[in-house]
Amino acid sequence: MPAALGMFNEIDKPGGHKNTKFGKSAGGAASKSPDELRPNVTQTAAEYAAKPGASYYPHAVHLVSQGLQDNKFGITQSSHDGVIGNLQGLHEGSQHLVGAHMTESVGFGKDALKHAMNGEFRDGAMTAAGSVLNAAASMTAAPAHMFDSMRKSDKPEHVAAALSSHTDFGSLAD
Q1: What distance in Å separates the CA atoms of residue 51 and residue 153, rounded to the nearest whole number?
Q2: Is residue 152 part of a domain?
Q3: Which domain covers residue 164, as residue numbers?
Q4: What is the pLDDT of residue 163?
Q5: Are 72 and 37 in contact (CB under 8 A)?
Q6: What is the rounded CA–CA span in Å between residue 157 and residue 117?
């Protein structure tokens, strides 16, 4: 388990997650508890990671979600829906890596504030960390992977766009 996940193990014990609900699912049905939603994220990410041509994203989601699940961290309905939507959108081509990470960053940020306002500091701290990590990934790993994918594309316009963006980066002042 990554050290970042283990550092919150002692907070809020023995009660663990308080199973708060932040509303309804995207379909309008009553929300499941965060503990009930987490395994679906873990399993769905594993399924998308196994698909041909999967990017790093479903693999990363699976790894992180499994660690969070193992340490009794749930996920709110809105964040669950965002992550599942990102997995589906990336697979179908309607979402991109930067957008996926920004969706998670914003959603986790909102959830972190709600957790903190409800006195759920363990969940708030972990969710805030997820928001920050996804914001950072949206500006680093995601663009790098997108650049690499475009550079290796069989479409000349993608290669040209990637090479022109590389030239732009090379012209930045040191």
Answers
A1: 19
A2: yes
A3: 146-174
A4: 74
A5: no
A6: 48
